[in-house]
Structures are given as C-alpha cells and as structure tokens.
Amino acid sequence: MKNYLLIVFAVLLLGCKNENSNINTSNIEADVNGLSADEIINKSIEVSGGEKFKMSSLKFEFRDVYYQALRKNHEFLLVRILVKDNDSIFDMLSNVGFERYDNKDFVKLEDSIAKTYEASVNSVHYFSVLPYGLNDEAVNKTLLKPEEIKGKDYYKIKVTFSQEGGGEDYEDVFVYWIDKVSFKLEYLAYSYNEESGVGMRFREAYNERYINGLRFVDYNNYKTKDKSIILENLGKAFENNQLELLSKIELKNLEVQLINN
C-alpha cells in the first residue's frame, strides 16, 4: 500500500497546477498591542512550524482510518484510505481536484457525492495542521475583543470563508483563541450547518508535541445543549462548565518527514 501511494503521489504532483495561496490582508484592525489579525495568525503559524509545513509529508491515523498529506510549496495531495477486508478505498484531494479509487480502479462519482467526500477528507486534514492554512486566500479574519480563559489571556480571531475557494463548507464560521504570550492556538470553536439547524463545537487543545519542528495537538471536543449561547461566547461557556464533552480528536501514529526542494 505504501509503495502504491508513493507512485500515486509522484504522478499526481507532476500533474498539479501551481496554485498561489496569497495572504488575505483585508483585515487592518489591530489590538491594543498594535497587532492585526493577520500578524497574530502569522506569529501563531510560525511557532507551530511555519514554512516547514509547505514542504512536508505527514502520515497519521484518525478513528482507525489512515491519512497522508503531501505538501510541496503550493502543490498538495491529501489522502484518506479506508480499508475493509481485502479492499482499499483511496480518496484523494489535490490541486487538480478530488478523485476516488477502489484499489487501483478509478471510481466515477456524482458531483454531489464527490463534494461530500471531498469536504470530509479536507476537514480532517484542515484540523490536523491548524493554524497552518489560516492564510489561504479564501480566509477572512476579524480581530475580536481579547478574552481571558482559565486565568490566561488570549487573542480572539473570527474566521469566515469566501464562497469562491472556500470549499463545500464555506458558510462555516470559526473562532480561534491564541495565547498572548506563546502565540499558540489553544482553543477553537466553530458553527456548521446541519439538517436541524446550526450546530456548534468547542475544542480544547491538549497533548502538544513537536515532530521534526511541526506542532501537533489533540482536542477535547465539546458541545452545548443551550442553544442560546452564541459561537463567540463558547470560550466563557467552557470556563463556566456549561459545555459537555462529546469526543476526543486524536491523531495517532504520527509520522513527519520534511521534503527538500
């Protein structure tokens, strides 16, 4: 399987289109220390590994599913492998789009189904490397009022996405709490659309580790039963024990390799 993946990576990367990922500098607000949302995110990305993410190969398992990410400058390949009995389903998202293979056979999907699988693959990879990715062109950042959680001071940044380039879930809204001293991302919350309305989650980072200079964390994943609590107030709701632990987001068997130019 690993040898097959290496071949697929090589072929797809050769066919990838170069996609410029420009920093969104539309936010010019600054906090009392003179830092804008962009500057805070830049510092957070830097302490988490910075440019090393752009030239990296990551492997991990999440909920018994195998994932691999290959990034080379502005080219990327995000993979999910579902193994059942003797069959392996390969979902692959790259600069050229989304593709599914059953073992080595290409699977043609309806557009709506393909977009659902694409969003699912992208979501896991998106969370795995945060705050890397928060400077993508479709990201819109707004600096909110700083907040204290459990005795520590945090920058608080709201993130929305432009429809163009924002993916299937572009309407999702995120809030990030970044430590004012270390600039590490320690909490996040997000809202998402579901059949019954808008759902919300709050995540608390733990189990921080650096592998080859890249920072990774796991998360305690919380929900709220109180629909009156708005997204921006989930940090205080967490501090006041108003949230319920729903699950744990754990990346297992992490492997990181840095790629030379």
Write up what this structure looks like.
There is one protein chain. With 261 residues, the protein is of the alpha+beta class. The chain has a single domain, classed as outer membrane lipoprotein receptor (LolB), chain A (Clam), CATH 2.50.20. Helix content is 19%, strand content 46%. The chain is built from 4 helices and 14 strands. The strands form 2 sheets. A 7-stranded antiparallel β-sheet has the order 6-5-4-3-2-1-14, with helices on both faces. A 7-stranded antiparallel β-sheet has the order 7-8-9-10-11-12-13. The longest helix is centred in the middle third of the chain and has 18 residues.
List the helices and strands and how they pair.
Blueprint: H1 2-15, H2 37-47, E1 55-62, E2 65-72, E3 75-84, E4 87-94, E5 97-102, E6 105-107, H3 111-128, E7 139-149, E8 152-161, E9 173-179, E10 185-194, E11 197-211, E12 214-223, H4 234-239, E13 244-249, E14 252-258
Antiparallel strand pairs: 1-2, 1-14, 2-3, 3-4, 4-5, 5-6, 7-8, 8-9, 9-10, 10-11, 11-12, 12-13
Protein name: Deoxyribose-phosphate aldolase
InterPro entries: DUF6503
Pfam families: DUF6503
